[in-house]
Amino acid sequence: MRDCPECGARGIADHSVFASVEELERQGAERATRYSRCIHCEALFVREGIDTLTPAPEEPKGRLARVLPPWKGDSVEALFQLSWDMMEAYYEGLRALGSLDPLRALFHELREAGYDRKLRAGQSLHALGLSRAHDHGLREGQSHLYLEPEADGRVKVQGILDGTKHRFGPVPCTFGARIRRAIDTLAELPVD
Fold first, then answer.
1. Consecutive 10-residue runs of the chain (192 residues): their mean pLDDT?
2. Residue 134, pLDDT score
3. DSSP 92
């Protein structure tokens, strides 16, 4: 995340941009205008390059899709980071739910530690899903973990790691002991 020129908060994604679906279809990914929106103040910027944030003159027409920016390429790592950008925006939209604060903090800690380059992030209801899936969505039996938040700030952890079911908790929503071992085990599996 980078600082928003409008509000000053760290709210501009580095690993994803928005583009008009209509423009993508009509002009192609190479020529479609790309945008970034601050997840805090919702200011919209045209994104011509990694360091360019020009205030958008108007709201783009039609539906917007989050896509990889041209400076990222289309590596597995870039796809994973795109998924973390999407989840960061999702959890920011749920800021009013204070019960998710511990999970949000853990999410940011994992991202700071570089797991956004090793794992795909997703969600099911409010649970944070992590996998080594190349594509969005999980197939039957595919390795994954879900960290399901509890009202008291703890999480239940469940999933499949290399064919073995894992389930424990509720445990403190911190990156220590059992959660760390489970996530590290997942991160070492091959991309599937």
1. 93 90 85 91 92 91 86 88 90 87 94 95 93 87 94 94 93 92 96 90
2. 86
3. H
Beta carbons of 124 and 105 less than 8 angstroms apart: no
CA angle 75, 28, 58 (to 5 degrees): 105
Query: Distance (Å, rounded) from C-alpha 54 to C-alpha 145?
Result: 39
- Can you give the three-state secondary structure of 147-167, one letter per residue? EEECCCCEEEEEEEECCEEEE
Q: Match 């991160």 to its residue by tokens.
A: 187
> Who's near 60: CB < 8 A, 6+ residues apart?
18, 20, 23, 33, 35, 44
Residue 150 corresponds to which amino acid?
A: E
Q: What angle do CA 170, 131, 28 make, to 5 degrees?
A: 135
Structure tokens at 41: 């103040």
One-letter identity of residue 9 = A
Distance CA 143, CA 189 (A): 8
Give the Cα separation of 108 and 121 in Å (integer).
Answer: 12
d(CA 37, CA 63): 14
Rounded Cα–Cα distance for residues 82 and 26 (Å): 23
Structure-token pair, residue 7? 């509000």
Alpha-carbon separation of residue 14 from 47, 63, 175, 181 (angstroms): 10, 21, 24, 28
At 26, list the tokens: 């009509």
